[in-house]
Amino acid sequence: MPRHIDTLILLALPASGKSEVRKFWVNMDPETRLNDFGLGPTSDLDDYPYVHLIRRVDEVLARMGDLPVFYLGKDRPFQDPITWNVLIELLNEDSRHLQASDRYELGSASAAGWLFARMDVARDKLGMHRIFSRMPHLATLMEVLRADVSYHLDALNRVITADKDGATVVLEFARGGPHGSSFPIIPPRGYASALQTLAPEILERACILYVRVTPEQARQKNIERGRPSQQGSILFHSVPSEVMLADYGCDDIAWLRAQSDRPNTIRVERVVQEGDRYMTRVYDVPFSVFDNREDLTSFVRGPKEDWPIESIRALHDGLAAAMAPLRDAP
C-alpha cells in the first residue's frame, strides 16, 4: 500500500483555493486520494474559525457599548499583530488533542468560557496580557456567544475523535504582510513567523503545499466568494479589504524558498526547549507549489453533482503533479 503523508500544512493567501482543495479531496474516493495524492482520510484543522469568533467578540462588545479588544475597528486589522501567533498556538493545542484523540471537555465552564480561557493562556504564552480574565460584561458576552462557540467546539471534537488509522492531518492557514513590503517581512506577520511558532512535533512530520495566486487575484476572488450571511463559512467568508492590503498585500513564501539550502524545502529555524536550556533547531520541511493562477478550484464551491468533468480532470492533474514531490519526500 502506498505511504500516506502524515501532516500537510496547506498555505496560501485568502481566497486562493485552499478550502476548495480540501473539499475536493474529501469528495474523492479513498483509493484515488491515496494513490494520486498520498493522502489518507483528512483530519482538518484551520485557524479561520478562531478569527471569526474573535471578530464576533468585538461585534458583541460594540453592541454593548464597549471598545473592541482584538481589532482596530469593524472590518479593520488586529490591534496587536502578535494575535497572528496566538492563532498558531491554538492550532498547536488542537493538534496535540487530535494526536491523542483527546476531545475537549468543558467541565464546569461554558463553551465560550472554555474558548476565552484558552485564548488567554495562548496570549500569556506569547507575553501578551490576558483579555478575558478582566473584561467587563464577561457573563453577558459568554451567553451571547454560547451557540457560536458550541458549534465550533462540536466540529472540532468530531475531528479530534475521528479514526486516525492511515489519516492525514491538514493544517490550513494564511499569512502575509502589507502591500509593498520588503523582505523578510517583519514578524509576527508572514509565514516565517507562523512556521517558527508551530510546535516542533508538527514540524518534524509535516510537509507544505502552497497554493499560488497573485495578491491581485486573491483580492478579486475574496470579493467574488464572499456571502454576507456566511462569514463563519470556510468557503464563503470574505476578508475585509483593509486587511487584504495590510496583512495579505504580499507573502513571503518565495523569499523563504530562496533561503533554503536544500531543494524543494522550506527551512524553519525554531527555538526549542531541551532540558533547562533553549536552542535553535532547523527543520527542512518538504515543500511544493500548486499553481492556481488559472483558477482551477472555484468550481468546487458548488454542489459536487454540478462539477464539470473537464474541470475535475484539470484540478486532479494539477494537484497530483504538485503533490508528487511531497508523496515521495523522506
Please describe what this structure looks like.
By secondary structure, the chain is of the alpha/beta class. It has one domain. It is 43% helix and 15% strand. A hairpin with a 2-residue loop joins strand 5 (265-274) and strand 6 (277-291). It is globular and about 55 Å long. The mean pLDDT is 94.
State mean pLDDT (0 to 100 scale): 94
Number of strands: 6
Q: Outline, from the CA principal axes?
A: globular
Tell me what portion of residues adopts beta-strand conformation: 5-15%
**Order of strands across the widest beta sheet?**
2-3-1-4-6-5
Task: List the total number of helices.
Answer: 13
Helix content: 40-55%
Oligomer category = single chain
Domain module tally: 1
The poorly predicted ranges are none
- Order of helical and strand elements: EHHEHHHHHEHHEHHHEEH
Distance between the termini: 16 Å
Q: Please outline the major beta sheet.
A: 6 strands, mixed
Any idea what the radius of gyration is? 20 Å
Strand-pairing-aware structural class: alpha/beta
List keywords for this structure.
alpha/beta, six-stranded mixed sheet
What would you say about this model in short?
With 330 residues, the chain is of the alpha/beta class. 43% of the residues lie in helices and 15% in strands. The protein has one domain (7-327).
